[in-house]
């Protein structure tokens, strides 16, 4: 546990963090409106958090960091539970979890034609993206996203991929699909999606398994990528891909 004063020293570094601000407290709450707790991107907690309330706050800290979002939650403790630690009455405390940071990223492997369409849809959806390719000629055409020229052989130049991020594999001509999959599986993002026909995927699956991956690993890959909305044109496919990512991002709230 660290102090909030230590957290304030870090804010100038533009690091990712979540503040938990007590908005209201009723019954025998030991908390007062305006009290603040925090968790940084490394999971360090700032402020004195204990018991069931502490577990509630830390659980929602992780949720906010994972989804990159702010929200209001209520902590409720009934009288029977409160008595276990000496309190007379129950507690109802509302806490606003305020996220600060860029939020989950969508990492697009491949700077081909469909990538520009994807970026347009993701931008409207409020999703931040990076584009990854090993050819500067194609990367130079990308607008609206940070680009990374990488070396698949040396595994260098890649952006940081966090557990809450999404990876979309649409490499040009599918020539780097296997290498992109290996990078994704080394980072364990929440979602890995890959474009491709049934025939192409069958061939790639053989290569994937030959690299030491398992059937369970293959099932982690959403392919063919995108929600099944009958998409045919590049624009429709881009919308289907974005829809699937939004669904994955929101499904725990549904």
List the topology elements:
Blueprint: H1 4-10, E1 17-27, E2 36-40, E3 45-46, H2 51-67, E4 71-77, H3 79-82, E5 91-100, E6 105-109, H4 113-124, E7 128-133, H5 136-139, E8 146-149, E9 166-169, H6 177-187, E10 191-194, H7 198-210, H8 215-219, E11 221-222, H9 234-250
Parallel strand pairs: 6-7, 6-9, 7-8, 9-10, 10-11
Antiparallel strand pairs: 1-2, 1-5, 2-3, 4-5
Please provide a written account of the structure:
The chain has 254 residues and is of the alpha/beta class. The protein has two domains: 4-100, no CATH class; 105-253, 3-Layer(aba) Sandwich (Rossmann fold). The chain has nine helices and eleven strands. It has helices spanning 4-10, 51-67, 79-82, 113-124, 136-139, 177-187, 198-210, 215-219, 234-250, and strands at 17-27, 36-40, 45-46, 71-77, 91-100, 105-109, 128-133, 146-149, 166-169, 191-194, 221-222. Strands 8-7-6-9-10-11 form a six-stranded parallel sheet, sandwiched between helices. Helix 4 (113-124) packs across helix 9. The model has no long low-confidence stretch (mean pLDDT 88).
């Amino acid at each position: 546990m660290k102090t909030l004063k230590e957290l304030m020293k870090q804010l100038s570094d533009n690091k990712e963090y979540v503040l938990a601000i007590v908005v209201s407290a009723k019954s025998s709450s030991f908390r007062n409106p305006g009290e603040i707790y925090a968790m940084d991107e490394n999971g360090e907690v700032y402020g004195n958090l204990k018991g069931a309330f502490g577990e509630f706050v830390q659980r929602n800290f992780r949720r906010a960091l994972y989804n990159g979002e702010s929200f209001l939650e209520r902590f409720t403790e009934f009288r029977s539970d409160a008595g276990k630690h000496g309190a007379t009455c129950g507690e109802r405390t509302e806490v606003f979890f305020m996220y600060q940071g860029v939020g989950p990223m969508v990492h697009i492997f491949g700077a081909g034609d469909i990538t520009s369409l994807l970026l347009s849809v993701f931008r409207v959806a409020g999703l931040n993206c990076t584009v990854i390719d090993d050819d500067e000629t194609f990367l130079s055409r990308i607008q609206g996203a940070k680009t990374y020229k990488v070396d698949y052989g040396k595994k260098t130049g890649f952006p940081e991929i966090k557990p809450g991020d999404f990876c979309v594999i649409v490499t040009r001509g599918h020539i780097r699909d296997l290498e992109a999959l290996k990078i994704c599986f080394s980072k364990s993002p929440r979602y890995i999606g890959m474009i491709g026909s049934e025939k192409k995927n069958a061939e790639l699956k053989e290569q994937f398994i030959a690299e030491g991956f398992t059937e369970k690993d293959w099932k982690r890959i959403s392919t063919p990528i995108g929600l099944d909305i009958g998409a045919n044109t590049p624009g429709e496919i881009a919308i289907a891909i974005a829809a699937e990512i939004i669904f994955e991002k929101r499904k725990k709230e549904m």
